[in-house]
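Dataset card, provenance and construction

Sequences and ligand SMILES were collected as paired inputs. For each pair, a complete structure of the chain with the small molecule in place was predicted and serialized as structure tokens. The example below shows a pair involving flavin-adenine dinucleotide. Curators did not alter the output after generation; any descriptive sentences attached to a record were derived from the structure itself.
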Amino acid sequence: MSIGFVLPSASRENKEVDVAIIGAGPAGLSAGIYAIRAGMSAIIIDKGNAGGLAEEAPFVENYLGFEGIEGEKLAKLFKEHAMKYVEISERNEVRDIIMENGKFVLKAEKGEYTAKAIIFATGTTHKTIGVPGEKELFGKGVSYCVTCDGYFYRGKRVAVIGGGNSGAIAAIYLKDLGVEPVVLEYMPTYMCEKAYQDIIKEKGIKYITNAMVTEIAGENKVEKVVYKDRTSGEIKEEKVDGVFIYVGLIPISELAKKIGVDTDNRGYIKVSPKMRTNVPMVYAAGDVTGIAGQIIIAAGQGAMAALTAYEDLMLR
Amino acid sequence: MGYIGDKDKEYLKGEFDKYLKEKVMLLVFTGDNCQYCNVATALGQEVAELHDAIEFHEYPVNGEEAKKYGVEHAPTVVITDGDKYGGRIRYVGLPSGYEFSSMIEDIIDVSRRTAEVSDEVKMQLQMIDKPVRIQVFVTPTCPYCPRAVRTAHRFAILNENIIGEMVEAMEFPEWANKWNVMSVPHILINEDVQFIGAYPDEQYIKYVVEAWKKMK
Ligand SMILES: Cc1cc2nc3c(=O)[nH]c(=O)nc-3n(C[C@H](O)[C@H](O)[C@H](O)COP(=O)(O)OP(=O)(O)OC[C@H]3O[C@@H](n4cnc5c(N)ncnc54)[C@H](O)[C@@H]3O)c2cc1C
């Protein structure tokens, strides 16, 4: 049995800091540690829990120093480490940012924060596929989080749509829970790392390639997923009780855009190698930059962003 | 060895020293044929040992105290001042995994006899003048669930007509099935209004108000 960890979400307050970090995922937490150690004042604000998407990662096998660790545990270690240095304000969504007297004012759920610099470590959110049935059957068999909902399908059959790394990890996790997953991948080959391919084969998880999902169907609950076999053009279906969707991520960059930050055509924040955006004193790190979608890289980018902010803010 | 690690204990002690004010009661209701009752009791005891302001009691689920607090299932954990909060801030099933932190936050709020919401939400909460029961179905591995649980509990702290009840879906599968719970957090208000997801207070309260209006 696992016992979660604790931190009373910070209280309502107004605060002035050198650098405000939005997002307490791996990127933001790492940025927080580096910011304080460099000598700046900082706060990390997150609308959910510290840990970010890493909390949803069932099992992480590629973070240096850990041969294998649950995402939840790794997130806990990150958070405990960061807490030693920096205030983390959880369940506190930043809703607007304005400029006032040359400083940024972040208007959040629990207060207003004035900062000389901002690091966007806002990560991503799950992408939807946009096929009929997806919205209608959300919560009735359609889900985007295996660690949250996988349990409900023990002894049942589910489809995992998307065979990239997240989808592969999700399918492996489900199989270990006692669920029978079938992966549906759009592309003609395995889209996940070789390490995951090997586990998928070894565990006998069905991985269908060239499958274009066209519908999730069922009366009041998921009953089947319909797809087009892109090689034969044939319409096929898999009878399932649930569907987990892992077709990619959408960057959370609206607030950044609002203050003039450039993004690419998919919405990822454009950054220089030192994590500067086009707007002075505004930096971005982690998945929101679209560079890799990996915890270790997010953490590294967070560190870089804080160091660059220090350079721009303190050494000029 | 206990359930809470030494490092976590130390951290919790520090938090309790900082924030606990008045007495808080941590009540665990247990019964027969209950897989997690022993764990609930042990966990409750371990938490209570960390600070003098926390008072631990174990009661049978079919006894007088259970009636008094409106508890029907085992295990149920109630965080209360023993008076005005009654049994309205409760966990049906073990507050483990991510929900452990919800319980700690509840202990702090109950000890401070208050909870934080914006003025706008406070005003809407004041309208609720009939009993409203908010049930939040969760799994312990759901990182988004504590937010939904805590919102229900904060509302319950601020309004005497509100019951905030976490239900651990894995321990009570029939219950979860009855309401077709397949994604968590799944919030059910007065066994009528339902929604899925961890919404901010401003949206959450709208569903509560909707359920309350339907009672008129
Ligand atoms: C199923 C699954 C398995 C995975 N497995 C692995 C793995 O094995 N190895 C690996 O390296 N990676 C894995 N990943 C990817 C990994 O989780 C991410 O790369 C990593 O979490 C990115 O970190 P981040 O800090 O950039 O963003 P995130 O972790 O997404 O954190 C961003 C944070 O910003 C917050 N936020 C956003 N907007 C606001 C706002 N307006 N106000 C306040 N807060 C805001 C969010 O709440 C969130 O907490 C997996 C992902 C999934 C879904």
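Derived descriptions for this record:
Chain A has a mean pLDDT of 95.
The pocket of flavin-adenine dinucleotide is lined by residues A 22-28, 45-48, 52-54, 56-57, 60, 62-63, 93-94, 121-124, 166, 169-170, 252, 255, 286-287, 293-296, 298 (CB under 6 Å).
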